[in-house]
Structure prediction request, 259 residues.
Amino acid sequence: MLLSCLAIALYFAATFLLIRYFVINEPQHQQTIFLLVSFAIIVQALTFSHFWSDKGIIFGLANSASFVTWLISVLLFLSSLSKPIHVLGILIYPLAAFTLAFSITFPDTINKVIPINIALHVLLSITAYALLALAVCQSVLLNIQEKHLHARKINNFINKLPALQTIEALLFQILRIGFYLLTLSLLSGFIFIQDIFSQHLIHKTTLSIIAWIIFAILVFGRKVFGWRGKQAITSTQFGFGILVIAYFGSKFVLERLLT
Prediction:
């Protein structure tokens, strides 16, 4: 609990400094933000030691939400070292803090254990979700920037963002990688899952396939027809929304409502 509270404080401190720079127009404390996020990621990683048991990985709703947001934070942190996307920390770092607080308040039970033999499928799924979550955050940023530019309302926040074309290119770059990983995740799921009905996975699998189709159409449309703007934003957010319902919605119903 102490480690979780420390990570929460570090994430919020980094968020506060990012807001001061992008919104309030105060000087950027880049090195301080770098250190805060680095320590937050390391400290949160230390909280994962209780995930393991003799039977497998305790990966219920709380643990999986914490791990997904941690992985999103790691991907954002590493990407921001070479790409101008550190502004997304304003959305992602508080989310990581809130999921940590959720895992403290509503911890998972020992009964929800994932066998080690399907760990690869789980890892692929979570990495795909994390990348697609980054793409969604990027689409939110793109939507905000487009609306302000079209209305000619240029404030400090909009003025400090990268060019519109840069944000859009990064969105599709992240989206493509996330789509490829989601494809591998679904394929590995069909290999490891023996009985989709007895394991209560039919709704999760169906929704995941629907989301995959949406992302496949979007990636194909971008490559062939050059889709961009509103089409990309809406499709990305709608597809990810279905994924969230598929994974976390099913976990919430099975683990918190039906137990």
